[in-house]
Give the backbone structure.
Amino acid sequence: MIHLTNIEKSFGSLEVLKGIDLEINKGEVVSIVGPSGAGKTTLLQIMGTLDRPDSGKVIVDGVDVSTLSQKKLSDFRNQHVGFVFQFHQLLPEFTALENIMIPAFIAGKSQKEAKRRALELLDFMGLTERAEHKPNELSGGEKQRVAVARALVNNPAVILADEPSGSLDTKNKGELHQLFFDLRDKFGQTFVIVTHDEQLASITDRTIHMKDGRILEEGGI
Ligand SMILES: Nc1ncnc2c1ncn2[C@@H]1O[C@H](COP(=O)(O)OP(=O)(O)O)[C@@H](O)[C@H]1O
Ligand SMILES: [Mg+2]
């Protein structure tokens, strides 16, 4: 699903990723943990084609993304990768339903098709009643679930989540984490989740430990 080979990335003289090799398989829920500044967000952004490495190879859903032009890359991202961030990043002037539909419009889907898919996802999230509400009328947990629905609308190969439950209370955290596993069990959805939450990390299929721009070997922590 995702193959990273010897990824290196610097910002100026700061070496942030120092040779990362990583493989994520279809249907896996993988967590990435490590101290602040370890390079977790940078790695996730490179996996999601939001940033390019200085060297190394990134293959996502069978495509070597270094071969794609900027325009092709944004189409690729829209159709193959879903993102969930710590803060929902929903557009405030649009309803939950509209927020979920937007990536489908960008992908060229019809209004009817986009709405059908968005309603199906809202139903799966237990949010049908909230479809016509704007983000400021939704709880923190509801906003994050809408953000997950938006990430899923184009059936991405993988969802990349950067501290998705970082701003939620314990109950909403638990519900969001359960949702990831439900989506994996029901649809075979692949997830890569950067998290500080040890409880979540402990229930994922695999935990990648990062420190100072490198992946620590199993048992080497
Ligand atoms: N766009 C950028 N420009 C300069 N430095 C950056 C940029 N993005 C991240 N960094 C630096 O790279 C290091 C790793 O950042 P990041 O990948 O966000 O780590 P993490 O998510 O593990 O906390 C940090 O020292 C951060 O300040
Ligand atoms: Mg980060």
